[in-house]
Amino acid sequence: MFEGLSDRLSGILSGLTRRGALTEADVTAAMREVRRALLEADVSLEVVRSFTEAVREKAVGAVVVKSVTPGQMVVKIVNDELVAMLGTEAGIIDLNAPAPVAILMVGLQGSGKTTTTAKIARRLSGREKRRVLLASLDTRRPAAMEQLAILAKQVEVESLPIVAGQSAVQIARRAMEAARLGGFDVVMLDTAGRTTVDDALMAEAAEVKAVTNPHEVLLVADALTGQDAVITARAFDQRIGITGIVLTRMDGDSRGGAALSMRAVTGKPIKLVGTGEKVDALEEFHPARVANRILGMGDIVSLVEKAAETIDHEQALRTAEKMRKGKFDLDDLSMQLGQMEKMGGIGGLMGMLPGMGAMKKQVEGANLDENMFKRQRAIISSMTAQERKNPDILKNSRKKRIAAGSGTKVEELNKLLKMHRTMADMMKAMGSGKRGIGQALGSMFGLGGGGMPGGLPGGMKMPPGMPEPTPEQIEQMQKQFGGKLPPMPPGLGGGGKMPGLPGLGGPKLPGLGGFMPGKKK
């Protein structure tokens, strides 16, 4: 979503970091370009003005001018101001109230409000272990109540039985009473939307709020609508009073201006973001992590969290034991490819690794088809158990049968077998810490002669101005690893190695897309 803005800002700021000293004129010229980049990204004009002025005031101060690396200090200032613009802390849904806790969902029609309601219910039910009741108050849109009932079944929570002819306020009262009698922890109220903000919409939402006294009022806004989303957020906040924002379609090609403007304009935190159509495509919004990714600094914490969520540790440990014995068959390769898919493929991982902007461009330039993983797994699934364990027995007749069974060509099968042999050899080298992630990716996909640009193999240095992980981030990562955090890579605080990225040594987090799994610390 922020790709265009990230490219522009990275280019502007890298020009500053290459200078030995900065003058006020240098900073002013850079801020002019930053201002233009933010406006092109659809950020609100008032937000752009306050942001660039705050950066310029700090950047021309004595601290920067006398710094050993003034350009890097400016990057740090820009990063800090981006975090301040987005909100210094990640907002969470507050359930600290007597049960049943009412959550009122508001927003315009077409913003994804009903689907988001189900996504949040799934999150509260699965992660927070809360009993959730869903209730649709949308009496106008055809089949809106039925849609929420179907989604409730998908996410395995209960929905309020539909009674025809009731008004939104009557349904809201019935939902609260049913939640009290049924022993529910949370009741989520999905209100009706309109194509535009109007008095009827606001009056109905305000009446429902008065009746239910919700602990949270969440505005669902479509990130693709740009500045219209900011106008909508301001209108709802002034008329009803919202406690947080959920941005949908963050996986789309919007320029990111809505996300950057909303927090500054309304003063209300962006609590969650929708990243796809599936019911599990919902993530917490972490301002510091988003700022890091906008400036091309990666997002190690999110990478670790995503790995911890998608990886089957028991299976990974069994695979690790096989590898220690020098075995790596096609079943293991299929498992690794599946885990790579779950984590967003090569492109998804590149966006979270620090200093990987050039590598990501190289991957895109290679026209790598992300569906390749599905085809490769289909090829492996078409083999017999004996063939998967011992691929050396695959001769021409077997290859033709497998290709026909998987709907692929023999050439694709040969490429898969070659990749398997390369990876099997790589496992031995990685075990001794002789190959880096750059060489691993380069070898697998033929990028840059087996290595990454910039001399990254074997240890990744942080881009200029990258802030050290905060104590809160470190604590969060420690929880993922059962209380003890493996050492981090050089430049990430601690001077050690990064978990889960073989070739960077140290204990490895299992299952990062075909790389060696290892024991969880």
Automatic annotation (TrEMBL):
<dbReference type="InterPro" id="IPR027417">
    <property type="entry name" value="P-loop_NTPase"/>
</dbReference>
<keyword id="KW-0733">Signal recognition particle</keyword>
<keyword id="KW-0547">Nucleotide-binding</keyword>
<comment type="similarity">
    <text>Belongs to the GTP-binding SRP family. SRP54 subfamily.</text>
</comment>
<dbReference type="InterPro" id="IPR013822">
    <property type="entry name" value="Signal_recog_particl_SRP54_hlx"/>
</dbReference>
<dbReference type="InterPro" id="IPR004125">
    <property type="entry name" value="Signal_recog_particle_SRP54_M"/>
</dbReference>
<feature type="binding site">
    <location>
        <begin position="190"/>
        <end position="194"/>
    </location>
    <ligand>
        <name>GTP</name>
    </ligand>
</feature>
<dbReference type="InterPro" id="IPR042101">
    <property type="entry name" value="SRP54_N_sf"/>
</dbReference>
<comment type="function">
    <text>Involved in targeting and insertion of nascent membrane proteins into the cytoplasmic membrane. Binds to the hydrophobic signal sequence of the ribosome-nascent chain (RNC) as it emerges from the ribosomes. The SRP-RNC complex is then targeted to the cytoplasmic membrane where it interacts with the SRP receptor FtsY. Interaction with FtsY leads to the transfer of the RNC complex to the Sec translocase for insertion into the membrane, the hydrolysis of GTP by both Ffh and FtsY, and the dissociation of the SRP-FtsY complex into the individual components.</text>
</comment>
<feature type="domain" description="SRP54-type proteins GTP-binding">
    <location>
        <begin position="269"/>
        <end position="282"/>
    </location>
</feature>
<dbReference type="InterPro" id="IPR000897">
    <property type="entry name" value="SRP54_GTPase_dom"/>
</dbReference>
<dbReference type="InterPro" id="IPR003593">
    <property type="entry name" value="AAA+_ATPase"/>
</dbReference>
<dbReference type="InterPro" id="IPR036891">
    <property type="entry name" value="Signal_recog_part_SRP54_M_sf"/>
</dbReference>
<dbReference type="Pfam" id="PF00448">
    <property type="entry name" value="SRP54"/>
</dbReference>
<keyword id="KW-0342">GTP-binding</keyword>
<comment type="subunit">
    <text>Part of the signal recognition particle protein translocation system, which is composed of SRP and FtsY. SRP is a ribonucleoprotein composed of Ffh and a 4.5S RNA molecule.</text>
</comment>
<keyword id="KW-0687">Ribonucleoprotein</keyword>
<dbReference type="Pfam" id="PF02978">
    <property type="entry name" value="SRP_SPB"/>
</dbReference>
<keyword id="KW-0694">RNA-binding</keyword>
<feature type="binding site">
    <location>
        <begin position="107"/>
        <end position="114"/>
    </location>
    <ligand>
        <name>GTP</name>
    </ligand>
</feature>
<dbReference type="Pfam" id="PF02881">
    <property type="entry name" value="SRP54_N"/>
</dbReference>
<keyword id="KW-0963">Cytoplasm</keyword>
<protein>
    <recommendedName>
        <fullName>Signal recognition particle protein</fullName>
        <ecNumber>3.6.5.4</ecNumber>
    </recommendedName>
</protein>
<dbReference type="InterPro" id="IPR022941">
    <property type="entry name" value="SRP54"/>
</dbReference>
<keyword id="KW-0378">Hydrolase</keyword>
<feature type="binding site">
    <location>
        <begin position="248"/>
        <end position="251"/>
    </location>
    <ligand>
        <name>GTP</name>
    </ligand>
</feature>
<dbReference type="InterPro" id="IPR004780">
    <property type="entry name" value="SRP"/>
</dbReference>
